[in-house]
Design goal:
CATH topology of the largest domain: hpI Integrase, Chain A
Number of strands: 8
Largest sheet: 3 strands, antiparallel
Structural class: mainly alpha
Number of helices: 15
CATH superfamily of the largest domain: Intergrase catalytic core
Distance between the termini: 60 Å
Radius of gyration: 26 Å
Strand order of the largest sheet: 1-2-3
Shape: elongated
Length: about 375
């Protein structure tokens, strides 16, 4: 096999090379052409790579499909994605990926473009040209990576260029964690508020918003002080639905501290009184722990909205509801629990995920060990 390089412009080169098996009739190989931007050294390296792919059989047939076309076609056929995930992926693609990379041919996408795309998003990738956080850029990067990985398995591309360039590192400040004094003050301010029980359980277990909203009383054992996570409530534009955990690790049993057990007992009594007052009767195992007054599911997005309102009206620390999960993890780490134990308790599929998200917390654990005292679950519950 052979190939050559011809200059097309100041920083443009045309590669010509033989590709594929020989034609039985003519004995010749098919000839392919590709334009590469950069130095001659860059062009030579690309030619060597392409010839190696032809030699080892990993070369793919030329395709003009663009990044935008591939993303949208993948979404339309992505049966392995949950409705909520698919909704979020479409949003990220339409807002952060397609405006910048959508017109590029999927097969011609290069690592340098991924690098430049990251920088653009970090500087002005949001609405009205505002900067995006490294966390949001990372989410968009993972969507692109997963889409290209699908194309790689179907032999539409020969490599995943999104794997070559890593997403930007998340600034530790992006993960807001409540310290011991803030947790104490927040719980005191919430006393008597309907959000107090769910916030207490979130702090004591690190459960996700959807897991809390989808929790039935049948999964709570106040005698053994445990709660089983077996499903979550998902909210999409199509409505609400219960879904099973995505991974085996997501299905887990979490031990509860005594204070949280008492909080749940009081919450159950209050819920029972409210149900009896409107003729619903006593709650059974299928009834939700945290439901609306009419016993219907409480939408996760409404929980976030109500939390934001409570934060403002009660002058609580300006954090999202998800920060309660982060604060639980921080307390576990400060108490000296290893990453595997922490990962199992919060339902991560792999300890590496826990390390990636909370690396800075592990690094700072010795400096903020007092945070562990704010959550009794750290002392009595390690499952």
């Amino acid at each position: 096999m052979s190939g050559n390089i011809t200059r097309r412009g100041q920083h443009s080169w045309r590669l010509k090379f033989e590709a594929g098996d020989r034609d039985p009739a003519t004995g010749k190989r098919a000839t392919r052409f590709l334009t590469v931007r950069g130095t001659k050294k860059d062009a030579r390296g690309e030619l060597i790579r392409l010839l190696a792919e032809v030699e080892n059989g990993s070369a793919v047939e030329p395709s003009r499909i663009t990044v935008a076309e591939w993303l949208r076609s993948w979404f339309d056929a992505a049966g392995e994605l949950s409705p909520k995930t698919l909704e979020r992926y479409r949003q990220l693609a339409e807002q952060q990926i397609i405006p910048h990379l959508g017109a590029s041919a999927l097969q011609k996408l290069r690592p340098a473009q991924i690098h430049d795309w990251h920088n653009t998003l970090l500087k002005c990738g949001g609405a009205a040209g505002r900067a995006l956080s490294a966390r949001t850029v990372g989410h968009a990067h993972r969507v692109l990576h997963r889409a290209i990985e699908r194309a790689l398995r179907l032999e539409i591309v020969s490599r995943n260029v999104a794997h070559v360039i890593r997403p930007p590192a998340i600034d530790a400040a992006e993960i807001r964690i409540l310290n011991a004094d803030e947790i104490t003050g927040m719980l005191a301010a919430l006393a008597g508020h309907w959000l107090y029980p769910i916030a207490s359980l979130a702090l004591a277990t690190g459960m996700r918003r959807g897991e809390l909203c989808g929790l039935p009383w049948g999964a709570v054992d106040l005698e053994t002080a445990t709660v089983r996570v077996e499903r979550s409530l998902e909210e999409t534009a199509a409505g609400l639905r219960f879904k099973s955990p995505k991974t085996r690790a997501g299905r887990r049993t979490i031990s509860l501290p005594a204070s949280t057990v008492e909080t749940l007992r009081a919450h159950r009594r209050a819920q029972m009184e409210g149900r009896l007052a409107i003729g619903l009767g006593r709650p059974d195992g299928s009834d939700l722990v945290f439901a609306r007054a009419d016993a219907s599911p409480h939408p996760p997005d409404n929980l976030s909205r109500d939390w934001r309102r409570a934060v403002l009206s009660l002058k609580l620390p300006r954090v999202s509801f998800h920060a309660l999960r982060h604060s639980h993890v921080s307390a576990l780490i400060a108490a000296g629990l290893d990453v595997v134990t922490v990962s199992r308790r919060i339902g991560h599929a792999n300890p590496a995920v826990t390390l990636a998200v909370y690396a800075h917390v592990f690094a700072e654990a010795n400096k903020d060990a007092a945070a562990a005292l704010a959550i009794e679950a750290v002392m009595s519950g390690k499952r």
